[in-house]
Write a structure and sequence with these properties.
single chain, 472 residues, alpha/beta, Oligo-1,6-glucosidase, domain 2, TIM Barrel, Immunoglobulin-like, 3 domains, 13 helices
Length: 472
Amino acid sequence: KDKDDPHADWYWWRPARPGHEPGTPGAEPNQWGSYFGGSAWEYSPERGEYYLHQFSKKQPDLNWENPAVRRAVYDMMNWWLDRGIDGFRMDVITLISKRTDPNGRLPGEAGSELQDLPVGEEGYSSPNPFCADGPRQDEFLAEMRREVFDGRDGFLTVGEAPGITAERNEHITDPANGELDMLFLFEHMGVDQTPESKWDDKPWTPADLETKLAEQQDAIARHGWASLFLDNHDQPRVVSRWGDDTSKTGRIRSAKALALLLHMHRGTPYVYQGEELGMTNAHFTSLDQYRDLESINAYHQRVEETGIRTSETMMRSLARYGRDNARTPMQWDDSTYAGFTMPDAPVEPWIAVNPNHTEINAADETDDPDSVYSFHKRLIALRHTDPVVAAGDYRRVETGNDRIIAFTRTLDERTILTVINLSPAQAAPAGELETMPDGTILIANTDDPVGNLKTTGTLGPWEAFAMETDPE
């Protein structure tokens, strides 16, 4: 906070807007809002200026334009690698390069040649168009590769990549460009949310989801690689979001269908803790049950400050999309606190355990051949043993039904067809699947899906399978 300190330019510091008293409403350098609610600028009385934080005020944005900042980051990474770690998952790494005018001013800042975006219903504009995949993104990543990873073997780099398109994923993960090994893209995770807000639903179909996944698959057909995920610490539980957690049968079958969808695409699958058990959303009913800063701030801002949502509708949104749904304790067994704390001295966890841990837990599933857990093990074994699953080319299959997803993976003379009814009702395929090919089932979440399909012309609710088709 001392302007004369050697670290004075390590963050994005800016003065108050002309004509405004520093630290008062409206004095922020521009109108950017934080992803966690409120302004993206925090005032420091000691310095008399504001610093930028796209997320929490405890997470100020580093100024990557400063070579000393980059050097410190690379030194830290080398320190860890020298101690034997295998790589890094890099949080929002695609937000490190900002778009500024020739004088280094941010959009909307006094004197800037760049215009800020109009404010949204919450009273702020989004920093994303000016901070995501900025003009020096490739330069910074390539420099990091040279300074940290060149000359090393056996490491992995994966970047969380908001604002990155499928096409840019190809460039960044192409080994020839020397940047990152993989990226987590997010376009597919927004198919059921409006572009304006993650808290607002929009109509969607499974076909919409596969369209986004297909864009990612097609973009890395020649170069680069894909990260495959449906669950993580920032997303609600996928079995509650896009599956069926209202009954045991629906939960198990839809969890397996979603797992098949994930693991049969080309790329590296990521399984988030509890996904392999079919863990569900927390189903919290009151705000005091939440711990996530984003969720709590969103409630206060949208309900109490702006009045754009009622308490009832916002609580429904938190229950559907809130990040704490994925942050309840791992469900190891049916004991107190689900075995998350030591059984002989149980201590109440920081956030409540999902009450359904007595029915959904690792102890019950690990030895059950029909469990969601066992299904995941079979999928992972397929990827380890079948070259087509590991490396085969991807092609989307026209199903003639927006509830049914289908695609092939092909390598040499072998083809695997995956078909998934991602809905709670029977669905009839058409298009390329109007006449099902013959073949051998590799994995399925029902007993005889192809036989049933050929007999009835429909797939059952959440029915899914992968089969190696016979050569023509």
